[in-house]
């Protein structure tokens, strides 16, 4: 490293100083002192020539040596800013200073260095952007006449933006006319214009305020005039940069989109799609340019990425305005009729068609009525797009074309009906390749051929693709569902020769698909994607078909095998969570939408089958498992940002990699096909279904179908009925009831077993449970634990409440007791007084018998008095007692209500030891 | 989309005085009692006719909050006209701030920018806190055009936008501007002769339109 630095050093010296030799000193300090000396010559020199040569030496050493960059960063900025501020007249010095600054921010070729070493260019960029007035200074330099001054200034700004984007954005925003100056550069000579374009592109990537000001300054006019000047899609990398800038301006918020629509319109944008020159000649650059223009169109048609769902006005206006510019024709030309265009372009065009028609009645009609090709080979555009779905070798293209049908069928009952109405089996005339482009057949026939083709062939490629389209046609449309239910295949597959229902054939393919993926083991090694997608797509078709459609359920359950097969799928450990989950949903639909009364399998039988073969708990677990993986799927594919790159190399390679990046990986959560299967609407349908299914299964259990009606009147002996008959009748009744009881007991036992299994699953089930299952169980357990904890909390607080109440009552009881006691004391003392008086009287009578009269009288008086007194007190006492008694009774009942043991409570009055333990017991319950 | 001239306008003034409502009334001919707070700037456009010439107005509605002041200043320079709005029912807050708004405009706009002072919400006569005379007086002192208007009843809304345009148009005729320099917020369109389809894109809302 040192040696290397030393060599560079020498080179620089040899070049820059022209013979001045520093010997072998390779330490960084030599750069320090060299740079310092040069800076000193620049700031203090008097000879103009010497200062200029010092500047150019400084520039070359800073361009080549990291150490010099570091040294320059530490000392150089004030010196060079001073030059820029005060020596505007000396163009050569200003140029030199700017070029040196550019070099100080540009990594040297030998910048390898160690990873954790300080990057001098980063540091320098930080230092320069920190300086409050440096950016306004640079922006003011854009007004200089000298070409190089403006050129270097733009480069410097771009370098600053790369390293310190936020600071630069802020500084530019707060500099009056800052953006105006940058915009003026777009009208400059080519080199400067391109540099400014790049800078503006970077500036507008994130900062919404800058995006708006740029638009205010007339960016749209300028962008389109440059694109036109450069030859539209045939133009070079400048066109690409223009389109990237355009997309930055359109990506967010509606405001800029409205401005484009209302002031310039979309004509110029649409005309970029026009293929001039040789239509077969798609250079890479042209492909990139077309992709840029298609992205703009898609952004506008979506109303911007931030478009709120409710505020559709802007989106609809854009759809209308584009339709008026005939964009559909151009898109069809690119997406459907240009097999020589890059796949990525065809896909982008198809996606644009999708958003163009989405929820827009006029545009939906326009597509429905569009025909392609030349006489006499006209063909409806939808048929051509469907053929792409069947034929393409690119999964991306399948997804894009499938998206057109998805958008076409969304909230478009008439469109769905139109497509469904053509699904009529064609007479089986000879062997025809349905993919043969020369044979134009109605849409429905193509669809049926696609669905049922190659039945000998193990490959179900066209089948799952057609099934995907069929599910769009049936989605939410009961008429279409009923109609397609009637479709029977002419060529009998069964030996009995009865025509087979289309639905049954499709279920058969589901089984074939399963066996394929089983045989293939690891699908990744298979060249065919059939084994990956056949099952999920057919399952989605069935989920869609059965929803809200009792007849479809009836038809599906028409074959006992179907139920058995689904039950197998749900519990098969070798299937993915999606397969198991979707199968579980279909089973649930067989319960939820089952209107069978007598003929066919009813909801009870389905539920019984589920609970016997799978167990309800583990059945519902399948929903949980699938829901758990939804977040992965619904997470939007992250919009990867292109790195700031001067050349378009990055995006070029992206174009070429489109195919590889979609490599098939079944275990990967972002599999593009799975993503398109589990799109937002389908996910929400499943969520809604799950709730309903749970409810309807509970319903089935709570209202078991009673085979024996109990009519009270029939329990009586009828008139004229002999005892024997009556007994017979009752006996058979009881027998029937007994049987039903047996049934219920059986079901009950199954449920109990189920519950028991769930309880013990945490321990016993672990041996075979895979990671996902364990996670789900852990989740459930955690939830249970949470609930239990909460319940304990509630109980605890209840306990304290009861305890508090109990202690209040205890106190009350204590007080009453003491009241009682004092009353009885009072009574006792009265009695004592009475007794004493009586004995006094006796003693008196005995001691003095003569003066009897008086004494007797007094005695009588006294007795009377005392008696009256004590009687009154006694009465009071009794009243009191009565009151207390009823109080005690009332409190006792209340205590009983609260669950207290009243006897022990009352017993314990005076010594309250036993009570607290009682309430503790309660809490444990 | 042919026009003789394109004028850029900005609408400025305190938050809540009715700037966004004035724009909506002018472009869409409707009043929206509950309007979202404007963040940064929003855009509207409409075609008008002056002296038989189609003129396209591009209007930027700004956020009144202080925190957006530095951003909205970027729009002053390139605008040909400004509508400075206050609320006649809120004397203190909005009328008294006019001077500071005007100072901002004088500092950052081009000297020839036409400024229209609008006393908005004149439908709320019973809650009036600023008299018409006061408004007139202020306008006169600072050389502005003045009008009272209501975004709710649409009274004077057309007039305000159009008479601003008429003033700019007159300045052009008088040779005040170098119209080839777009930084004045004026753009010359094609010929200035209204073609047969001149008024087609009359407002921001376009009816369904025919199919392709
Ligand atoms: N009565 C009445 N209310 C108005 C008028 N103009 C606007 N408002 C109301 O004033 C509030 C603020 O309007 P807004 O346009 O958002 O103000 P901004 O912040 O200046 O854009 C809204 O609640 C409007 O309904 C008007 O002319 N008359
Ligand atoms: Mg507003």
TrEMBL record, chain A:
| Transmembrane intervals | none
UniProt superkingdom: Eukaryota
Alphabetical UniProt keywords: Coiled coil, Golgi apparatus
Coiled coil stretches, renumbered:
778-833
Q: What is its main location?
A: Golgi
Q: Where in the cell is it found?
A: Golgi apparatus
The segment(s) forming the Vesicle tethering protein Uso1/P115-like head domain are 382-697
In the record, biological process GO terms are:
endoplasmic reticulum to Golgi vesicle-mediated transport; Golgi vesicle docking; intracellular protein transport; vesicle fusion with Golgi apparatus
Every copy of the Uso1/p115-like vesicle tethering protein C-terminal domain together lies at 798-922
Which PANTHER family does the annotation name? GENERAL VESICULAR TRANSPORT FACTOR P115
Output this protein's name. Golgin candidate 6
UniProtKB/TrEMBL annotation, chain B:
Q: Does the keyword Nucleotide-binding apply?
A: yes
What molecular function terms (GO) are annotated for this protein? GTP binding; GTPase activity
Q: Where in the cell is it found?
A: Endomembrane system
Entry keyword GTP-binding: yes
Example of a GO cellular component annotation carried by this entry: endomembrane system
Membrane topology per the entry is: Lipid-anchor
Pfam families with a match to the protein in the record: Ras
What keywords sit in the KW lines? Answer: GTP-binding, Lipoprotein, Membrane, Nucleotide-binding, Prenylation
PROSITE patterns in the cross-refs: RAB, RAS, RHO
SMART domains in UniProt: RAB, RAN, RAS, RHO
Q: Which InterPro entries match?
A: P-loop_NTPase, Rab_GTPases_membrane_traffic, Small_GTP-bd, Small_GTPase
Which family is it part of? Answer: Belongs to the small GTPase superfamily. Rab family.
* Record-given protein name: Uncharacterized protein
Q: Which organism is it from?
A: Coptis chinensis
